[in-house]
Amino acid sequence: MLISIVLGILIFAYATWMVISFIKKSRQGRCAACALKDSCDSGCSAVSFEERQQILSSTTHHTK
Q1: Pair 38, 26 in one domain
Q2: d(Cα 44, Cα 33) in Å, to the nearest integer?
Q3: Total domains in the fold of the chain
């Protein structure tokens, strides 16, 4: 019985945390909440053109 209560509380707490996290990210906007915002090439305003070019040039690996 006690294990069921603890398990139920854990599941409810995790679900609540995920909903709150989703709401916070959705308030930031599409590009600001994106995990790829630092290396994105879509042109969103979260990363300036110069920063995007610098990041892309530093992450490009030349393989032969």
Answers
A1: no
A2: 11
A3: 2
Residue 46 CB neighbour total at 10 angstroms: 17
- Is residue 15 exposed (0-12), middle (13-18) or buried (19+ Cβ within 10 Å)? exposed
pLDDT band at 6 (very low <50, low <70, confident <90, very high): very high
Over the stretch 24-46, which tens digit does the pLDDT of each residue have? 877 776 666 666 666 666 655 55
Residues 24 and 38 in one domain: no
- Which residue range(s) make up the domain with 62? 34-64
pTM value?
0.49
Could you tell me the two tokens for 19?
A: 């909903």
Mark whether 18 and 43 lie in a shared domain.
Answer: no
